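For the sake of transparency, this paper describes our internal protein records without simplification. The remainder of this section carries one protein's record, kept here as part of the documentation:
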Amino acid sequence: MIGTPLYMEVYRDICEKIKNGTYSENSALPAERVLCEMYHVSRSTLRHALDELSRDGYIVKVHGNGNFVKAKMFEQKLTKFHSFAGSLKAQHILIKNQILDYELIDTDKYLDSIDLSRQKSPPNTKWHKLVRLRSAETYPLMIETSYFPQSRFMTIDTDILRDGSLYSYLETYYNMEITDASEVLSPLLPNNKERMLLQIPPHIPCMLCERFCHERESLIVIHRTVVRGDKFKFKAAYYVDDPLN
């Protein structure tokens, strides 16, 4: 196109290849040397195009590893108590659950690592441990491990939970009422099994989300959730009542 800078021609062509799936999500773009030869441009022209692609959210530049196509993101607001399924369904996004494991346990490595007494956990109880792979549209988004005490929830029908909400199930069959919850977010490097289930390459980080739900004075649900860092983001809004010093 006459008058169009060379870097914009490169930008537009790579954009089109991303949009039509020639370069798929999380895949690496060809090396800069290859792209320079492909478009017959200098390294500085190519890098100008790549900078614009990164600025506009089409690619992610990973120092020392190359340039990768950025994945579609899903958003979870943290302004009030939320459920994964409920928030995404409100955005008309199809949710799928795959049960990976279920067992009744006394404890495990994760439960041993947290201070259950501080969380007001019922003493000497067994725990239902439910592990689900949760997906939005065609994307696996998170691996959610949920714990809930048998002293409060005697039995669990996993068939219902294959298609339904855990919270809705517990509210319907056990009259559960969550009165407060706390949540901790921290970065996490996924292990090989988690990367395989989430279908992510080694360079993609994850977020660990730990939630502790209470029913008045009792801890009734724990979630340990490994969330894909390339496809899911948490958004918080804060309101300041008093002037900051």
